[in-house]
């Protein structure tokens, strides 16, 4: 197994910045950083990270290169664009994609990097921004056994759960379907809250009672109690447009497999409507506002 000497981290957004902070302060390894925004770069430089002026410079620095990007389109641009990773990497490096990306893209990029002697892992992160700040994210990994063994100690700098799901692409499959199930659960919670309010019962007592029975879940305790019940949908959390992107990936997989995912189609339509009504940057349980409006419409 090759010795890890240097790291790079590209993409310092809502999740990337706290992950990189944990990696910088806990790994004991030098970390080069790059982002198009100067503010997170400056903040992380104070913790010991080394700013790089470009993707190309960041790629030259690290034996292991972490990417935390908003979507597959951004991943593709960083890898395939002028001065991107495919043009900059060298044999023996490892690419770790921490974002949620299409499965086919992950596998295609892995093949192109392999042709250059570069390993690839998809390692999308789950849980909330608070978990990123606390270093308690959950990560599903698609990689060879050797690559997983190499990167697992680094991932544990910012995650409390790290699961090897199989070969490249498997981490994305599990993460995308996890989000599909979470959105379906939260949609049901939003509907339950809207119906309960129409019948004179507030969401807080309703959800607290759910926790004592068979309706209890992580989604209830976090998205339900902390967002839906108090009607808190802040920006710079996990926005509606990001969740819509993830559900679109799930629907693409379903279509490729000949599966009619009706619940996912419903939740995708709600997320799309929320974006169209101007809630794209708000925390995605904001779909509650649409459901309440629908519940309030008089019967025809």
From TrEMBL:
Listed GO MF terms: NAD binding; NADP binding; oxidoreductase activity
Domain 6-phosphogluconate dehydrogenase NADP-binding, first and last residues per copy: 7-166
Keyword Manganese: no
Record: active site: 175
Coiled-coil regions listed in the entry: none
Domain of life: Bacteria
Record flagged with keyword Ribonucleoprotein: no
Residue stretches making up the 3-hydroxyisobutyrate dehydrogenase-like NAD-binding domain: 169-281
Keyword tags: NAD, Oxidoreductase
Pfam families reported for this sequence: NAD_binding_11, NAD_binding_2
Protein name according to UniProt: 3-hydroxyisobutyrate dehydrogenase
Species annotation: Muricoccus roseus
Taxon lineage: Bacteria, Pseudomonadati, Pseudomonadota, Alphaproteobacteria, Acetobacterales
């Amino acid at each position: 197994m090759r010795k890890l000497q240097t790291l790079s981290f590209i993409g310092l957004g809502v999740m990337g910045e706290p992950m990189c902070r944990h990696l910088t302060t806990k790994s004991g390894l030098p970390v080069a950083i790059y982002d198009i925004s100067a503010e997170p770069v400056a903040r992380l430089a104070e913790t010991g990270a080394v700013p790089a002026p470009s993707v190309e410079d960041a790629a030259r620095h690290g034996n292991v290169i972490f990417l935390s990007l908003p979507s597959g389109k951004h991943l593709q641009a960083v890898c395939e664009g002028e001065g991107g990773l495919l043009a900059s990497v060298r044999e023996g490096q490892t690419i770790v994609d921490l974002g949620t990306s299409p499965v086919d893209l992950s596998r295609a990029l892995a093949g192109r990097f392999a042709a250059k002697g570069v390993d690839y892992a998809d390692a999308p992160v789950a849980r909330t921004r608070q978990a990123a700040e606390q270093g308690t994210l959950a990560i599903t990994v698609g990689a060879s056994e050797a690559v997983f063994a190499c990167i697992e100690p680094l991932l544990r700098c910012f995650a409390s759960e790290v699961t090897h799901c199989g070969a490249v692409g498997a981490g994305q499959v599990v993460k995308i379907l996890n989000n599909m199930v979470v959105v379906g659960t939260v949609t049901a919670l939003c509907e339950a809250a809207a119906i309960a309010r129409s019948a004179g019962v507030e969401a807080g007592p309703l959800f607290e009672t759910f926790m004592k029975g068979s309706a209890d879940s992580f989604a209830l305790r976090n998205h339900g109690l902390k967002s839906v019940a108090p009607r808190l949908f802040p920006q710079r959390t996990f926005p509606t447009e990001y969740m819509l992107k993830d559900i679109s990936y799930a629907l693409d997989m379903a279509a490729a497999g000949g599966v009619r995912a009706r619940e996912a189609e419903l939740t995708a339509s709600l997320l799309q409507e929320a974006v169209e009504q101007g809630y794209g940057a708000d925390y995605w349980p904001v779909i509650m506002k649409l459901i309440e409006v629908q519940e309030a419409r008089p019967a025809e």
